[in-house]
């Protein structure tokens, strides 16, 4: 009776004895459409001719959901004097230490190795700082260039400037397995530049020379310098490599001191 009232309350038109027939299927069973098809075929005088197995299955699941099948028991409501555990009470009983993730030994070892590698790379970079031959600065505006007492010359481009702080620096294109002091890829597209395009050397007399070593010629003040040849660089010389143009600026004060020292050594050796 309770089942029939429930189905009517849902607005479902049900035949007489529908609940009784559906109750013959146990709640712990896993009926399929074939089960309800057999129920329809064995009781043709009970169900409407348009009734489908799927509709009967939906009715049966509703009865099971609301504990209307005979073998189902409904949990009793708590007594008035019984203590009902609220969400806050349940939350207070949780031990946070028990919620911690399980220790992942493999992950800890991997992180430890990565940490050691990172520290080793940092120490290597710190040790190499004093041996850096070229520093790269961003070029901002057309402000006058200030030389320090360590910069011999500057190769100034449109975007970056390369500070020459060694008597010999290499020019070219840095790759995964090859590095140069002056990486022209920082200035612009350098796919036409050789990995080792050339070398700039400062002689003892204070003169700078550019040696061309790449497949393409290096242009100095419009003159092509082919591979195997050298050319003297002056202050404000224009150096062009594969469409990338630079101005070579000399630290005149520092070079003057170098030339004076070279002259003194020459006199001492002659005496």
TrEMBL record:
Residue ranges occupied by any FHA domain in the UniProt entry: 169-225
UniProt cross-references to Pfam families, sorted A to Z: FHA (PF00498), MCRS_N (PF13325)
Annotated GO CC locations: centriolar satellite; Ino80 complex; kinetochore; lysosome; MLL1 complex; NSL complex; nucleolus; spindle pole
Entry keywords, A to Z: Acetylation, Centromere, Chromatin regulator, Chromosome, Coiled coil, Cytoplasm, Cytoskeleton, DNA damage, DNA recombination, DNA repair, Kinetochore, Lysosome, Nucleus, Phosphoprotein, Transcription, Transcription regulation, Ubl conjugation
Compartment(s) of residence: Chromosome, Centromere, Kinetochore; Cytoplasm, Cytoskeleton, Microtubule organizing center, Centrosome, Centriolar satellite; Cytoplasm, Cytoskeleton, Spindle pole; Lysosome
GO molecular function: G-quadruplex RNA binding
Biological process annotations from GO: chromatin organization; DNA recombination; DNA repair; positive regulation of transcription by RNA polymerase II; regulation of chromosome organization; regulation of DNA metabolic process
Segments passing through the bilayer: none
SMART domains hit by this protein: FHA
The keyword Cell membrane is assigned to this record: no
Protein name, entry field: Microspherule protein 1
């Amino acid at each position: 009776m309770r089942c029939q009232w429930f189905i009517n309350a849902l607005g479902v038109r049900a035949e007489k004895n529908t609940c009784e027939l559906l109750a013959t299927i146990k709640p712990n069973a896993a009926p399929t459409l074939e089960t309800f098809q057999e129920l329809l075929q064995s009781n043709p005088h009970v169900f409407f001719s348009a009734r489908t197995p799927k509709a009967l299955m939906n009715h049966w699941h509703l009865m099971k959901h609301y504990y209307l099948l005979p073998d189902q028991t409904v949990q009793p409501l708590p007594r008035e004097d019984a203590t009902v555990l609220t969400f806050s009470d349940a939350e207070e009983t949780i031990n946070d230490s028990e919620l911690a993730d399980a220790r992942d030994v493999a992950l800890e070892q991997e992180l430890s190795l990565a940490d050691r590698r990172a520290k080793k790379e940092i120490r290597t970079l710190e040790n190499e700082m004093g041996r850096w031959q070229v520093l790269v600065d961003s070029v901002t505006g057309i402000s006058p260039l200030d030389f320090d007492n360590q910069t011999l010359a500057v190769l100034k481009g449109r975007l970056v400037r390369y500070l020459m702080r060694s008597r010999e620096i290499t020019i070219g294109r840095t790759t995964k397995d090859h590095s140069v002091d002056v990486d022209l890829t920082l200035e612009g597209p350098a796919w036409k530049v050789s990995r080792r395009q050339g070398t700039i050397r400062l002689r003892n007399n204070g003169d700078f020379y550019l040696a061309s070593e790449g497949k393409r010629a290096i242009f100095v003040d419009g003159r092509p310098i082919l591979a195997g040849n050298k050319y003297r660089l002056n202050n404000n010389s224009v150096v062009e490599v594969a469409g990338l143009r630079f101005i070579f600026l000399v630290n005149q004060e520092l070079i003057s001191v170098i030339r004076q020292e070279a002259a003194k050594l020459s006199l001492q050796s002659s005496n």
